[in-house]
Amino acid sequence: MKTLARSRSMALFSDAYQAGYRAAVDTSTPVLEPETATAPETDVFAAAAALGAWFEANEASKVCDRDKRRARKLIDTLAAGVYGGWVLRWKPSVRMTPDLEAIAETYRRLGLGEVPMRQCADSLGVEKA
Predict the structure, then answer these.
(1) Is residue 110 helix, strand or coil?
(2) Are 31 and 4 in contact (CB under 8 A)?
(3) How many C-beta neighbours within 10 Å does residue 16 have?
(4) By three-state DSSP, how is residue 88 classified?
(5) Distance of CA 128 to CAs 23, 39, 60, 85, 112, Å?
(6) Residue 48 needs a FRET pair 20 to 30 A away by CA distance; which of 2, 56, 70, 110 works?
């Protein structure tokens, strides 16, 4: 499914780019420039095509994510085993994450004040103009 979505979005990007994607570029709408970064010179039509392809792929991804969440609710209740032609295995995760409660307790115990935090990265937002 991932390959199908990827090939569809790349086809959309390619078709849009080859057609010039001129309809998606509205020169009457001001473009907001980021305050802290300068963007390299970019072909406006290529950028519009990329944004269009990203938007379409993102919409398709939302549908897939909903389907996966719905299926996961049932899968989480299953024991390891064979179900039809599918084998379900539960294996320990190899990913690690900080234990924030233990870190906060260590800071309190040592009198270091609040646990330092930082702002998360900006989220990408693309919408049709």
Answers:
(1) helix
(2) no
(3) 22
(4) strand
(5) 12, 21, 15, 42, 48
(6) 2
Q: Which two tokens stand for residue 58?
A: 């993102």
Structure tokens at 114: 């609040």
Task: Compute how many other C-beta atoms are within 10 angstroms of the C-beta atom of residue 53.
Answer: 21
**Nearest alpha-carbon partner for 21 in 11, 13, 29:** 13
| Angle formed at CA 65 by CA 126 and CA 77, multiple of 5 degrees | 155
The per-residue pLDDT string of the chain (129 residues; one tens digit each, 9 = 90 and over) reads 445 555 555 555 555 555 444 444 445 555 555 555 556 677 888 888 999 999 999 999 999 999 999 999 999 999 999 999 999 999 998 899 999 999 999 999 999 999 998 998 888 777 777
Q: Running DSSP on this structure, what letter comes out for residue 27?
A: T
> Please, which residues bridge with residue 81 across strands?
88
Separation between Cα atoms, residue 80 and residue 119, nearest integer Å = 40
